[in-house]
Amino acid sequence: MSEGKKNFFEDVYEVVKLIPEGRVTSYGAIASYLGSKGSARMVGWALIASHPLTRIPAHRVVNRVGMLTGKQHFEQPNAMQENLEKEGIKVKNDQVVEFEKLFWDPARELL
DNA sequence: CCAGTGACGGCTA
DNA sequence: TTAGCCGCCACTG
After folding, report:
1. How many Cβ atoms sit within 10 Å of the Cβ of residue A5?
2. pTM
3. What's the Å distance between residue A52 CA and nucleotide C1 C1'?
4. pLDDT recorded at residue A23
5. Does residue A109 fall inside a structural domain?
6. What is the pLDDT of residues A1-28, one digit of tens each?
7. What is the rounded distance in angstroms from the CA atom of residue A26 to the CA atom of residue A29?
8. What is the total count of domains within chain A?
9. Does residue A25 reach within 7 angstroms of strand B, measured from its CB?
10. Of all residues in chain A, what percent carry a pLDDT higher than 70?
C-alpha cells in the first residue's frame, strides 16, 4: 500500500471491484468513502485512466441520479447499458430504474 | 504560468 | 420546480 498520491486511483478500483452484481453506486459515494468528499470528479477521472489498464465493473458506477453519464467513454456507448441489463438492472433513457433500490453505498454496506 | 475542461455534486435564484 | 453556478482536483493546450 503506501506508494504515493495516485493510491487514490487504486482505492477507487478496489471499491468498484467490490460492487456486487446487480447493484450500482455513485461517484460521490466512492469519493466520500475514500475521504475525498466533494472530489467525485476524480473518481470519474480514475475510471478513465483505468479503462485500458484495469478490468473493473465501471458500468456499475453512475452519477447521483442514476444516470449513465459515462457511457460515452466505453468502447461502445451502449455497452454500459447492455452490461447493466445483463445483471438484471433495468435502464430507461440512460437512467437506472429504481436506482435508489439498487444503490450500493460503500460507507453503509461495505463498512 | 494561465485558462479551459471534465464518468460530479451541492447550493442558490 | 427547473436551470444555472461554484467548488474539488488533475490534465491538456
Report:
1. 6
2. 0.92
3. 41
4. 97
5. no
6. 434 456 899 999 999 999 999 999 999 9
7. 5
8. 1
9. no
10. 95
Q: To 5 degrees, how large is the angle CA A17–CA A22–CA A24?
A: 60
A74 is near strand B: CB distance < 7 Å: yes
The domain of A94 spans 3-102
Which helix (H) or strand (E) covers residue A47, if one does?
A: helix A40-50
pLDDT above 90 (res A40): yes
> Does any domain span residue A108?
no
**Å between CA of A38 and C1' of B10:** 9
A79 within domain boundaries: yes
Domain CATH number, residue A13: 1.10.10.10
Through-space separation of residue A75 CA and nucleotide B10 C1' in angstroms: 31
Which residue is closest to B10 in terms of CA–C1' distance? Answer: A38
Instruction: Kindly state the cell numbers that stand for A23.
Output: 447493484
The mean pLDDT value for A52-81 works out to: 94
